[in-house]
């Protein structure tokens, strides 16, 4: 029995969302496009629990993140457990676990929900869903190209035009070479610079230049000049001839060329693109919304060939990206690409009178077997009330069944949008509506 | 950079599952049948976060369950949060929150993952997925019937036959009346009996009878006689004439009759069916696997008209059920209904030589636009190795592209099951394979 003492609140937990059917409709639309796009490239879906041993994140993320930005706690058996904040460590764990049995290359995708404990704000919630696509064990250049194509195609499949977004591409090896070999920074300072570049957009030029001064001293303006060049040749002019292969310049040139050949007109080299400092080892990319109302990085990814080494496995070529549902929804909303809501119902059958219950149940079952989504209402309510509700619920077609209809087997189906009536016998209903609903 | 100091384990967290593509394939099959069945009845999908305020469960579940069987912890802001152990409190919260705006009746379903902290064992894991279908605010008798029909249809849509399972039906009001009015038990003792009946199957007759003795004394054998009667008339023969309406006998008779009229042959009255003691207020049902290898309750549900009262809302008629993925998988496995694994790929395109990269990329993009799932492999590996992998990966069709094919635009597609080769021009490929893959 339910205790009636306390009156409970109806709010969800802070920073997470309830999905009422209208929201779920959009959520399902987004996930369907993700799934369809990934499968069109032959990617196979995998999944895992949201519960992971905390140590999985300690190894490759800083202690700070695990301690302050994740949901981590001790379970009743004193195991440290974390609600996964990202999917990449999980895929690495799963690939490492069955490396001997799996047939490479792997083309895998997943649509996990992820968790982070931070202040909720626009585009950042405590739980969100993310589309992840990864390729393991394929030729490096080809998989960089495939991952970027797949990411781009996802946006096109939402109905976006190439002009709605742009793809910024960089290679970790270039900046790493520039910082270490040209500016002769040690590992600590190189890392400081990477972090600094990563937050450049949020700082004034003066603030950025002051912080850079602490690291580069007299060479600060030379460094800023490199960062500001949009042109691959300018950025790389100081690289020694023989080193071009090593530092990824050949890779990035080939990649940009192949994209151009495929007719991609919105991909550019971007020397300031860093994407944090963790697992990336080569190509990195981000996709930006070009609409001024939503101008920001939508999502990105890159190459991470070292991912399996923490499990004691050899390096394996890998690239991938992640795209969140919150930014995806903002993007399609900004560009007028949200689908119009339609309830999961093709036909609403309403009875007049008491005698029609049995026949309506049989008819409904029959139509469901034929593939129609049927709501049947044999309640004692007045027919006017039933019709009013069907209209408010946006049911597309309505069939009213009274004694006459049952006797004659002839039905009139009303199209609720046009008001038009279709007359047919019961065995014709499914065919008529299945055509109409397409 | 990844720290290489510690070698991490690759096991998932205790009691949860990794879904490799072959497992995910089955998981997606199960969820697709759930979704399709619910939508065929016009049910709309909703969702919510797995994180819920702990108080949501305290109000209607015992403190013991929240404290010992859930994942509950304090977040960094000192909020008590629980990973949802079931979906019913969440749907009640969401319906209560928007009761004024929603258009009743609601037909809602969801496929949440749920969590419980207990010893993992066959059929019971720490995280599982569950199909939940609920109807709110409809005529009581009709929605009891609809919920049972929907549950039954779900199993039929998996390919099960009516004879593979049986539906046991009871009504909480009957047992409640028998215990209180006939055996004159107080609330505490009535609750003790309900719990006792619930675990009857796990006890010997002697153990059961001994415990019953403590409550019923001299009337123990009379009580056991009631429990053992399979027949509605015997169980209810002592009920006073005028009380039949109140205690649900009319409801259950009409329900069984309507099911029979619909041609359902495997639904029975079962006086010992209790389903715990919480929110149920009327009809309860369970579906049992009849196969001796898996003989147990698969899932169940019932009527809970008081669900919204904890939120200070008026009672509202409601019924629903939940079906778990672990038992669903056991069921379809036991009855030979598991689908055969097929990778998410219709065509594998392999290059011979270096010059075909560009043309293969264009062809692949074109075929994807036409709806094919294409894996393209333009790596430098030997063609024999590519074919061997395609075979091991179970790709159904293979297209080898060399210089000749690019020059002439004529392709040979190999059916990997039959060995047969289809000759066609590139513009014919999609049509041929889309027909073939159906």
UniProtKB/TrEMBL annotation, chains A, B:
Oligomeric and partner information: Homodimer.
* A single cellular component GO annotation: cytoplasm
Pfam families assigned? HGTP_anticodon (PF03129), tRNA-synt_His (PF13393)
What the entry lists under PANTHER family is as follows:
HISTIDINE--TRNA LIGASE, MITOCHONDRIAL-RELATED (PTHR43707:SF1), HISTIDYL-TRNA SYNTHETASE (PTHR43707)
- Which CDD domains does the entry mention? HisRS-like_core, HisRS_anticodon
- Where in the numbering of this chain does the Aminoacyl-transfer RNA synthetases class-II family profile domain appear? 15-339
Q: What is this protein called?
A: Histidine--tRNA ligase
Q: What is its main location?
A: cytoplasm
Q: Name one GO biological process term.
A: histidyl-tRNA aminoacylation
Catalytically driven reaction(s): tRNA(His) + L-histidine + ATP = L-histidyl-tRNA(His) + AMP + diphosphate + H(+)
The answer, when asked if Iron-sulfur is one of the entry's keywords, is: no
Q: Which GO terms describe its molecular function?
A: ATP binding; histidine-tRNA ligase activity
Q: Which organism is it from?
A: Candidatus Taylorbacteria bacterium RIFCSPLOWO2_12_FULL_43_20
User: PROSITE patterns from the xrefs?
Assistant: AA_TRNA_LIGASE_II
The enzyme class is ligase
Q: Which UniProt keywords apply?
A: Aminoacyl-tRNA synthetase, ATP-binding, Cytoplasm, Ligase, Nucleotide-binding, Protein biosynthesis
Transmembrane stretches in the record are none
Q: Which residues bind L-histidine?
A: 86-88, 116, 130, 134, 275, 279-280
Compartments where found:
Cytoplasm
Classification via InterPro entries = aa-tRNA-synth_II, aa-tRNA-synth_II/BPL/LPL, Anticodon-bd, Anticodon-bd_dom_sf, His-tRNA-ligase, HisRS-like_core, HisRS/HisZ, HisRS_anticodon
Enzyme Commission number(s) from the entry: 6.1.1.21
Q: What does the similarity note say?
A: Belongs to the class-II aminoacyl-tRNA synthetase family.
